[in-house]
Design goal:
Elements lengths: L3 E4 L4 H14 L4 E5 L11 E4 L5 H11 L3 E4 L5 H6 L1 H22 L3 E3 L2 E2 L23 H20 L3 E2 L1 E3 L1 E3 L12 H11 L3 E3 L7 E5 H13 L11 E2 L3 E3 L1 H9 L7 E3 L4 H6 L8 H7 L7 H16 L2
Parallel strand pairs: 1-2, 1-4, 2-3, 4-5, 5-7, 6-8, 8-12, 9-11, 10-14
Antiparallel strand pairs: 11-13
């Protein structure tokens, strides 16, 4: 029987992934943890307050609950990381190394750690970015993710740690508020549309970025983690893709239901980050190795969010 620890369970990805893991294993088999106090999204789960920088506390929680798998989601995202680079590097790297060491020492069955398209950079091919290509990130978030990929593969090759990873594109969901990422305009715009407010985008109107709706991100994560080990050929991190669009494309999708949405543009420091990222992703290796397939296009995503977001937040 697996016993799963989710670190960063209060975040945008963590809260939804925790619920899906509960469906897969049973709520009693999933331990939610975060440095923040628990929120209503994870109130059905046993909760542990955890600072991932505290290796001793990680060991204590693993022993206390008989943990066999860890989903390590705690990180400082791209835009927040640029505001305090050393803090972001220390948390992102020390946290991952603590989990990899714990996995090795406690002989855990599996580890999941998310990477990001932020590992790519200005000289990476922008269209259909390959699995193996130039990687020259120019943000501390991207640098830490690239270093993390190398550590994951190292721990797999040297110590046999079964660590698995995805390079997420921008993630869009309706159950959490924007959390400091460069792609978070694609979350905020839905809230503004439903509230009847004008939306000012911090990226330019022609900025194309790879995106993914949260249910597809959850599906990709669990599909990878449930795949037989022999099918997981990439031990750094897999490319995964689903959608690519501009802010205008997204606004037009929303306007099918909220035709009075008005959007203007005021690019800020996040524009430079976005300009270093791909337009689209070649994820053929994930499709070939373990059968990745997305379920949502842009209009299906918008329809689902606009239907559910008001009910979720009581708007």
């Amino acid at each position: 029987m697996e016993k799963v620890l989710v670190i960063g369970a209060c975040g945008q990805l963590g809260s939804e992934l925790t619920h899906e893991l509960g469906k897969l294993f049973g709520n009693e088999q999933v331990i939610a943890s975060d440095i923040s106090q628990p929120n209503k999204a994870i109130e059905a789960f046993t909760f542990e307050r955890l600072d991932v920088m505290n290796r001793e506390l990680i060991d204590t929680i693993i022993k206390k609950h008989g943990i066999t798998q860890i989903y390590h989601l705690a990180a400082i995202l791209s835009a927040k990381g640029e505001e305090n680079p050393q803090w972001a590097w220390n948390l992102n790297m020390t946290g991952l190394l603590n989990i990899l060491e714990a996995a090795k020492d406690h002989k855990l069955n599996k580890i999941y750690w998310p990477s990001s398209i932020a590992v790519f950079g200005p000289t990476t091919p922008r269209v259909d970015t390959p699995q193996h290509t130039v990687m020259d990130p120019n943000t501390v978030y991207g640098i830490s993710k690239l270093a993390g990929e190398r550590w994951c593969e190292y721990y797999h090759n040297k110590y046999g740690v079964d660590v698995r990873s995805l390079r997420y594109p921008g993630l869009i969901g309706y159950k959490s508020l924007p959390g400091g990422g460069t792609t978070d305009y694609a979350v905020d715009i839905y809230h503004k549309a439903i509230a009847g407010e004008d939306f000012t985008c911090f990226l330019s109107e022609e900025t194309v970025l790879p995106m993914m709706y949260m249910p597809d991100a959850i599906k990709a994560t669990i599909d990878l983690m449930e795949a037989p080990a022999e099918k997981v050929k990439v031990r750094s991190s897999y490319n995964v893709g689903a959608l690519s669009f501009t802010p205008v494309d997204l606004a037009n999708s929303i306007k099918r239901r909220y035709p009075h949405l008005k959007m203007d543009f005021a690019p800020d420091f996040r524009q430079k980050i976005a300009d270093s990222w791909p337009d689209s992703i070649d994820d053929s290796e994930a499709r070939k190795d373990w059968g990745w397939q997305e379920s949502y296009d842009i209009d299906q995503m918008s329809d689902d969010i606009l239907e559910n977001l008001p009910k979720y937040f009581g708007k």
